[in-house]
Amino acid sequence: MELSKLPKERYLKYYVLGFVDAEGCFSVALKKQETTRFGWVLDPVFHVTQHESGRNVLELVQNILNCGRIIEKPGQPSTLQFLVDNRRQLKEKVIPFFDRYELLVKKNDFILFRRIVDGLERKEHTKPETFKELVKLAFHMNMEGKQRRYQLEDILDTIKGSSETTRETPAKD
After folding, report:
1. Would you kindly state where each structural domain of the chain is located, as residue ranges?
2. What is the side-by-side order of every strand in the sheet holding 69-72?
3. Residues 1 and 12 sit within 8 Å (Cβ to Cβ)
4. How far is CA 16 from each of CA 20, 33, 59, 73, 84, rounded to the nearest angstrom?
């Protein structure tokens, strides 16, 4: 579509809102990393996935949000992703957009996502108890963490530096 034929920017923002509500994802990856304070890293990411034939829509999302990048989805050469994983861009561009243009379907995931990004900005990930709270919030996102590799309880038990005592396994007779 030619730029001159695009509707007014206000309508485009609502188009992007609806498109993201259907095809977008707010997620917080939890990565095991032994060299970090608690052995885990919270990694917030916003992305929209589309077949390569829909690149122009991803470019529109990128232009409206004025951030991010478009990449080939790893392992899927005909699939593209518009991706924002830079925390400053998430905080300054993505979150304010979706605060102003309210999601319907992805609203709860967005609220938790925003809370986690805000917590990271406030350095809540530097104390064991508040780090655990951020981890728990991440597990409430995207179908209650059903697609996660690790179980919440296992992660909480392995967080280094926690003031909680580790559960002991009863001795066998």
Report:
1. 8-158
2. 24-32, 40-51, 79-84, 69-72
3. no
4. 6, 35, 11, 20, 15
The total number of residues shown for the chain amounts to 173
CA distance 53 to 74: 17
pTM above 0.85, yes or no: no
Looking at residue 163, its amino acid is: S
User: Residue 42 pairs with which residues in a beta bridge?
Assistant: 30
pLDDT tens-digit map of 8-46: 777 899 999 999 999 999 999 988 888 888 888 999 999
Cα–Cα distance for residue pair 164/173, rounded to 1 Å:
27
Q: Which residue has the tokens 């990128």?
A: 62
Reduce the DSSP state of residue 107 to 3 states and report it. helix
**Encoding tokens for residue 58?**
């991803």
Which candidate, 27, 5, 64, places its Cα nearest to that of 146? 27
**Quick one: how many helices (H) and strands (E) in the chain?**
8, 4
Q: What is the DSSP string of 34-65?
A: TTSTTSEEEEEEEEEEEEGGGHHHHHHHHHHH
Tell me the two tokens of residue 23: 């095809």
Top-tier CATH class for 8-158: alpha beta
Task: Say if residues 113 and 46 touch (Cβ distance below 8 Å).
Answer: yes
Distance (Å, rounded) from C-alpha 43 to C-alpha 41? 6
